[in-house]
Amino acid sequence: MRLETIFSTETLHSKVLELANKISSDYKDSEIFAIGILKGAFIFFADIIRAITVPTYIDFMIASSYQDTSSTGVVKIHSDISANIANKDVLLIDDIVDTGISLNFIRNHLLKKNPATLKICVLFDKKARRVIEVPIDYVGFEIPNEFVVGYGLDYNNKYRNLPYLAILKK
Ligand code: IMP
Ligand code: MG
After folding, report:
1. Annotated catalytic residue 98
2. Which residue among the candidates 59, 98, 125, 137 is catalytic per the annotation?
3. I need a labelling partner for 146 at 20 to 30 A (CA). Which of 61, 99, 100, 122 fits?
């Protein structure tokens, strides 16, 4: 296995700031209820919420759909949010959207809890792989159809701690 860097730490951080600025201005008169999807989003989530300037509440869900480098197509919610999000402005934050199956499932799950609004923010979008259309409000980077690791993203739980994004070449 070989790693090929595609986005450096600096490139990632400036994009995170750009997204946070856009979000802070869009939500300037409200409060955000941010929900991070673990484990993949943990680093992006921690970085972006610290750059958002409007009052922000946080919660997490643990969900999974992947094994090795392919989506199983079956989404499991291992842990749900604990807070009540009825009438809140929810911002769902995830690392990457690929087939769209996970975010579509999680979005439908959260909509049943009657938030006032529900928007989605992802750092990476593998658009070419989309199977289910899911409305994404904030996208950091569109990336090619390659398996990527680092900045929270893993291959069998490895590489999450890399401070940059790399393509994993076999
Ligand atoms: P989807 O349901 O196919 O959109 O997959 C979404 C989830 O699969 C993401 O939240 C990631 O956890 C994982 N995933 C998708 N593509 C990659 C990748 O290239 N590297 C690591 N994880 C990925
Ligand atoms: Mg994920």
Report:
1. yes
2. 98
3. 61
Q: Which two tokens stand for residue 32?
A: 């955000």
Ligand 1, pocket residues at CB < 6 Å: 40, 65-66, 71, 94-103, 147-149, 153-154
Residues 168 and 1 sit within 8 Å (Cβ to Cβ): yes
Residue 117: CATH number of its domain: 3.40.50.2020
Quick: pLDDT tens for 13-60.
999 999 999 999 999 999 999 999 999 999 999 999 999 999 999 999
Dihedral over alpha carbons 118, 141, 25, 54 (to 10 degrees): 70
The verdict on whether omega for the bond into residue 39 sits within 30 degrees of 0, i.e. cis, is: yes
Distance between CA 151 and CA 159 in Å, rounded?
8
Closest by alpha carbon to 151, among 76, 84, 95?
Answer: 95
The conformational region for residue 134 under phi > 0 = left, psi -120 to 50 = alpha, else beta, is beta
